[in-house]
Amino acid sequence: MESRDFEGFFGLLKEVAELYGTRLSKKRAELFFEACRGLSLESFAEGVRRHIRWGSFFPAPAEVFKALYGTHEDQATMAWCDVLEAIRKTGAEGPVKFADYRIHYAIERMGGWAHVAWAVGEKKRWPMKDFIYWYVFALKINIDPDDVKPYLMGNRGLPYKAGPEDIARMTLEVPAGQARGLRRVL
Fold first, then answer.
1. Are strands 172-174 and 96-98 parallel, antiparallel or unpaired?
2. Of 80, 106, 158, 161, which has the fewest CB atoms closer than 10 Å, so is most exposed?
3. Distances, alpha carbon 111 to alpha carbons 27, 99, 104, 130, 150, in Å
4. DSSP-derived secondary structure for 145-185
């Protein structure tokens, strides 16, 4: 949101405060606005509407974000669906590049693409649990795209002297899938 959105934001927040019987000061609204600045006014309104349906108290900014994006575990589960889709398409061969770079972080911590794809193919019990742990950790420590490799290598490897064009041509690019009613944090 931009500074020009404050009046619309404040008006909506006053209505929500009225609904919950909460006193809303201008200072509280300004702090709330700063916490939600990364959202558009429309996204904020959607998050508030979702919270009103299920929440029994005046929301903090965290509740608005949770209404839009779910919990860290929800985000990790959506990302795990992307991993399963990529395994279905390419198996352990790779290379793979996910739009959600936190997937790269988690997979690398788990032993790499080939190892995780093999474990899923063998119906091992640990991959999803470990993936969720590492993905949530990546969210909590705020991993940057620069902190991870641009793609995950598989068993196939790359030809000798493969250039960026060769790598791009051979790499399966996996977009960030969406869950019904939740957005992805990207």
1. parallel
2. 161
3. 48, 20, 11, 11, 16
4. GGGS-SSB--SS---TT--HHHHHHHPEEE----BTTB---
98 with 60, same domain: the answer is no
Range of the domain at 118: 72-174
One domain for residues 58 and 77 = no
> pLDDT tens across 137-181, in order?
999 999 999 999 888 887 776 666 766 776 676 677 787 876 666
- In this structure, the answer to whether residues 129 and 41 fall within a common structural domain is no
Task: Evaluate whether 36 touches 1 at the Cβ level (below 8 Å).
Answer: yes
Residues 40 and 127 in one domain: no
- pTM, two decimals, is 0.80
